[in-house]
Structures are given as structure tokens and as C-alpha cells.
Specification:
Elements: H1 7-26, H2 30-47, H3 53-60, H4 68-79, H5 90-96, E1 119-122, E2 128-135, E3 138-154, E4 161-172, E5 179-187, H6 190-194, H7 201-211
Antiparallel strand pairs: 1-2, 2-3, 3-4, 4-5
């Protein structure tokens, strides 16, 4: 079986399995447990509507997971079926950031690509944060300032209430000599954010907002 699910789909499966485990630990009513399992499986089916029979059989085992040890084993086995984020070449990255003269490339462990919906890194010695994300059947590069917040808030990529900061992109305005700033809050910890993205919907909305569309 080849890789068939994205990182965000993998994250969603993990969340649903955790719901089952938590229900088993706190509920004794078999009817309620059955309902939790049914809803969890339906959520996975909605996320992966085109599963092949073999893929559905593999994912269906989530309903048999009954404790944390079993869940960790299930996640470990499932992870190898995740389609990794493409390891973009320096040439490709330069094309995504054509206005950045001295682009500093990130050091990414090969294993991290397996749990990545988008690529992001902070430029050392500056306030700039880089984001490379899937957008409209391709990839887009965003470079903006990042200002950490002392308060928790909503990340507009993974849609969690967590430690965030403001990401702002400045673009040329319609009038010569003017500029437009657009931004939104995102996770401080980009790696952790990638572990909680469950859909591309919020990421796409975030990018459209930044681009003013």
C-alpha cells in the first residue's frame, strides 16, 4: 500500500482516535461508546471520501483501539502512509520569494517533512517569518514580520486557541509610494501547528486574506 493521506488527514485521524480513548476512560455506557466510535469513523470518512478498500480496512482499525499504548502503535503504523511535504530545492524556494535577495534557507530534518502541511521558518537576526504552503494546485511563498503575543489567541492556520503571534505582510498599494499591510494571528511554534492542522480550509482562508482576495 502506498502513501494515501496528507498530514492534515493524519492529524484528524489522531484526534478522532483520542476521542475514542477518552470516551472509554470516562464512560461506561456501551451505547455512548458506540456512538462516539461511529461519529469518529464518519469524521474520518468525510476527510478521506475516496478511500480504497484496503485503505478503509487499515483506518477502520481505529475503532479497535482501546488504550494509549494501542493508539501509539496505531499512529506509528499509520504514519508511513502519510504523503510527505515536498523537499523543495533552493531553486524552487528562490522562485517563491523572488524579491528576497539573500534568502536564508531552513534546516529541516527529513523526518519532519512527514508531518508537515506547510513549511515555515524564522529568519535569524530579523523579525521575518517565511511560509511556504499549498495554494491553488501549486505552492505559494509568504514573507512577513512576526510579532509574538504575550496572550493566547486563535491560530488562523490550525484553528486552535494557543500561543500565537501576529504575521503581517506588506505589499505595494494601488497608489505609487503607498503600501498595504495585511495579517493575522498564527502559532508561535510552527512545528506544533503542523501537528494540529486538520484541514486546508483555514490555511487557504488565511492565504486569501493575506493576498487581499
Amino acid at each position: 500500500m502506498i502513501a494515501f493521506m496528507t498530514n492534515e488527514q493524519y492529524n484528524l485521524v489522531k484526534k478522532q482516535v483520542n476521542k475514542i480513548i477518552n470516551a472509554k476512560a470516562s464512560v461506561n455506557d456501551p451505547t455512548i461508546l458506540k456512538t462516539v466510535k461511529t461519529l469518529a469513523w464518519e469524521a474520518v470518512q468525510q476527510s478521506l471520501p475516496d478511500m480504497a478498500e484496503e485503505e478503509a480496512s487499515l483506518l477502520g482499525q481505529m475503532q479497535l483501539v482501546d488504550d494509549r499504548l494501542a493508539a501509539d502503535k496505531f499512529f506509528y503504523e499509520l504514519k508511513r502512509y502519510v504523503i510527505p511535504f515536498p523537499a523543495l530545492s533552493e531553486t524552487k524556494l528562490r522562485k517563491l520569494f523572488p524579491k528576497v535577495k539573500k534568502l536564508k534557507f531552513p534546516l529541516i530534518d527529513a523526518e519532519d517533512y512527514q508531518t508537515m502541511t506547510y513549511l515555515s521558518w524564522d529568519e535569524k537576526g530579523s523579525q521575518y517569518r517565511m511560509i511556504v504552503a499549498p495554494y491553488e494546485q501549486s505552492y505559494i511563498g509568504l514573507r512577513g514580520t512576526f510579532q509574538p503575543s504575550e496572550q493566547k489567541g486563535l491560530c488562523h492556520i490550525c484553528h486552535r486557541f494557543t500561543d500565537i503571534g501576529m504575521f503581517i505582510v506588506e505589499t505595494k498599494g494601488e497608489v505609487v509610494g503607498t503600501f498595504t499591510k495585511r495579517g493575522n494571528t498564527v502559532c508561535k511554534d510552527m512545528k506544533d501547528c503542523n501537528h494540529h492542522v486538520e484541514t486546508l480550509l483555514h490555511l487557504s482562508k488565511f492565504i486569501r486574506h493575506i493576498k487581499g482576495k
